[in-house]
Amino acid sequence: MQLAELCDKDVVLDTNVLSHAENAGSSFQETAFAVLEWLRNADARWVLDDQGKDAPNPHTSLLFQEYRATLSPQSPALRMLIEFLSFQRVIFAARPGKELRDSIRELVPRNVKDRAVLGAACGSENRVLVSNDMTDFSTGVRDAVWDQFEVNIVTSDEAAA
To answer: How far apart are the C-alpha atoms of 51 and 148, rounded to whole Å?
Structure first.
């Protein structure tokens, strides 16, 4: 798995990866599920954004809120995240500073949640984001993100290759 070569410490997962893992009709279902299985068995930690002013808290994370709004409460991916939270396998990337937020906004102007997930990747140690969103994270945006922030955005297909 390519993801194992990119991430030994942490990884950020876009919500679409979790929903694709649970959707048998998705063309990404098999590889998205493989990404979750890799994370379950790896030493890497799951990264969430931290938008709060207090200590890191999943309830101040836009990504966590999006997971909960998108996935059913009993979904395997959401249960896995809760398990990771209880075993301290989740880390919270600090909210990016204003200059970085402005740069991210230029690249991803339409979607605040995608800006939050990219900000979390910028604040992670391995700087890897797995996302199947080819609209907001087109090839051109992915290249610009690498050039400006050295964040590697890969699809679940690429991650599982």
So the answer is: 22
